[in-house]
Every structure is written in C-alpha cells, then in structure tokens.
Amino acid sequence: MSTVKLSVDGAVATLCIDRAEKRNALNQAMWQQLSDHCDALQQDIKPKLVLVTAAGEQAFCAGADIQELHQLLEDSQALAANNQLVQQAQLKLQRLPCATIAVINGLCVGGGLGIALCCDFRLALQDARFAITPSKLGLLYSIEDSRRLVNLVGEARAKQLLYTGAMLDAETALKWGLVHQITERANLAACVRDWQQQLLAVSRVSITGIKQTIAHLGGDPEFGEAKVRPLFDAAFQQADFQQAAAAFIAKQQVVFS
C-alpha cells in the first residue's frame, strides 16, 4: 500500500505523506514513491501547483525510519543506494516546473525538513517544530540539503542548526526565513487556499521561468546559464504574454490557464 499518496484536483496536485502511526517517518519505499510521483507530475499530470502535506496531527515528518536505517547500516551497498534514492527524489521535487508548497502540520525533522526545503514555499502551524539532527548521530547533512538550507537562512544560521541539532520553534523559523507563514490549526486550510488562489492566478510560464532562474542563481547545476538565460526573451513570444497584453489593452482581467 502506498504511503506517499498522489491526488489531483484540476490544476492542483497533492502529495500526502501518509504514515501517521509512525509520525510519517520515511522509509525506502516512500522515497521511491515520491520519486515516481514526481516523474508522473512532470511528465504526465503537469499541474500548476503541488501541495505537499502529511497525515495526522503530530508530525509532517519525523525523519528517517530508524528501524530500516539500522538494517541498512549492515549493508554498505544498500545504504549507498538508499542515500542516492533520497537525493534523487528530493531533486525531482525541487526541480518540478510548477509552484510547490509544503504544508507543515507538526514536527518536521531531518529528511522531512529536507522535503520541505525542496518546496518553493513552506506554511506551518504555530506549534510546528523543526530540527536537523545528523550531528547528534555522527553524520552529515548532504551537500544538496545543506545548500538549500544556506540559501534560505544564511550560513550563520545554517551552522547553528546543523552543528547543534537544536529544535527550532515556528516563530523562530518564521523570523529566520525557514517558513513563509505560520498559522493556527483552525486556520490552516484557509491559509493554504489563500496561497493557492494567488499562485493559480498568475502565469504558468512565468512561474516556471522564474523558478528556473532562481535555481540557477542558487547553484543548481541542472539550470546552467545557457539553459536559463534564453527564457527571458522567449517569454515575450509565449501565449501567456500575448493574452495578458491583449487583456491589458482591452482593460480586462487576464485569466491564465
């Protein structure tokens, strides 16, 4: 049974981490499901927005499945393959051409925060908590995860999180720029709807081009200058701009697909 579920409603797709009884801890099968769903989103479904959510009320994701990780430690090849799968799934999520929002409904630790960092926006409950704990296990955060973190909160705060493994409350996460908005549980659905409406109202072409431009500036090797620089000029030839220009002249509201 899938524990990372994909559903689609019009232009909005939702990925739900659905293992609430384990505080949505991630195992190898779940990372593979996430990778496969991202392939489907990019190649077939092509939504305008993806929401990344989690089941239950305790945790967005408590990190790795410790029992499975203990087993993987006994087989170096299996461990290396698992680590590669994790990075592959995260990169696919990060590189989706649409807007993505992580809806953080509780504890968000380790690989769970790694997933949230791959999203464009992070909305969190006021009682959500955040931590990156490899230093408490004698391990390292990956280069890719570390780059995402530094790009968000800066080197000094990234070092504080990574060195100490300390738990961060939602208010501090908001001040640091780790999340974009915090809200009470009763208002979470309304908060998500507000962000959804704003993102669905703008141009898909613009979102994709802006996302890839920022990815280039952030050091993602997938989006080199030769690939990204032409996007600016190409946008003037796209139907979205032609439609918006015509609507502006006619003093009408443009409605993008």
From TrEMBL:
Q: Which InterPro entries match?
A: ClpP/crotonase-like_dom_sf, Enoyl-CoA_hyd/isom_CS, Enoyl-CoA_hydra/iso, Enoyl-CoA_Hydratase/Isomerase
- The record lists the membrane-crossing segments as none
**Species, as recorded:** Alkalimonas cellulosilytica
**What name has this protein been given in UniProt?**
Enoyl-CoA hydratase/isomerase family protein
Question: What Gene3D superfamilies does the record tag this protein with?
Answer: 2-enoyl-CoA Hydratase, Chain A, domain 1
Could you tell me the superkingdom of the organism this chain comes from?
Answer: Bacteria
Q: Give the record's family classification.
A: Belongs to the enoyl-CoA hydratase/isomerase family.
